[in-house]
Amino acid sequence: MSSGRKRSEASRLAILEATRFLLAAVGYERLTIEGIAGRAGVGKQTVYRWWGSKSAVVAEAALSGGLSQQVEPLPDTGHIANDLREWSRAWVARLTSPEGSGLVLALTAATVDNQEVADRLYRHFTEPHETSLLQRLASAQRAGQIDSDADLPTVASTLVGSLLYRVLARQRPPTADDANALVALVLKGCAPQHEGADAVRR
């Protein structure tokens, strides 16, 4: 690799690292291309050489690593309501952190005009959470705590998407109480028909 290419790659990596640092430090709203360039020690035009917008550089920073967290399997205590409440409270805490909310806003903006980026971001961030939820919901369905006819992918998407929407709406951020209410509502809707509300309390 030539010295010019080495310098170019070093600058690109510095920009991505600066983006990750500043997103966590100041949030998406206060993040600027000028700030990224200054932190990375490059000119603003160097940033624009690779990315056309703030959301685009944040998306690349996310996909190149450092912003996502490993998704752990949901606990299976035998009580689906308790397990989902624990998951939803953790999901809310992550989404409403400065880094989390900024990441959601940035990645949503970055996907508007680029379906390939949208697909990559879904596989990297959203799909792992939905997969983990589906596994726990399937276990609850086998245990008779969720109706056998319930559409589990829709249930998982509702739980993930409802809280994401609250962040995107940029009004009152979701709280732990909101998460608990959402879990109760969703479980009531997919409770076994012969048990009704009793299944929600399990």
UniProtKB/TrEMBL annotation:
<dbReference type="GO" id="GO:0000976">
    <property type="term" value="F:transcription cis-regulatory region binding"/>
</dbReference>
<dbReference type="Pfam" id="PF16859">
    <property type="entry name" value="TetR_C_11"/>
</dbReference>
<feature type="DNA-binding region" description="H-T-H motif">
    <location>
        <begin position="32"/>
        <end position="51"/>
    </location>
</feature>
<dbReference type="InterPro" id="IPR050109">
    <property type="entry name" value="HTH-type_TetR-like_transc_reg"/>
</dbReference>
<dbReference type="Pfam" id="PF00440">
    <property type="entry name" value="TetR_N"/>
</dbReference>
<keyword id="KW-0238">DNA-binding</keyword>
<dbReference type="InterPro" id="IPR001647">
    <property type="entry name" value="HTH_TetR"/>
</dbReference>
<dbReference type="GO" id="GO:0003700">
    <property type="term" value="F:DNA-binding transcription factor activity"/>
</dbReference>
<dbReference type="InterPro" id="IPR036271">
    <property type="entry name" value="Tet_transcr_reg_TetR-rel_C_sf"/>
</dbReference>
<feature type="domain" description="HTH tetR-type">
    <location>
        <begin position="9"/>
        <end position="69"/>
    </location>
</feature>
<dbReference type="InterPro" id="IPR011075">
    <property type="entry name" value="TetR_C"/>
</dbReference>
<protein>
    <submittedName>
        <fullName>TetR family transcriptional regulator</fullName>
    </submittedName>
</protein>
<dbReference type="InterPro" id="IPR009057">
    <property type="entry name" value="Homeodomain-like_sf"/>
</dbReference>
<keyword id="KW-0804">Transcription</keyword>
<keyword id="KW-0805">Transcription regulation</keyword>
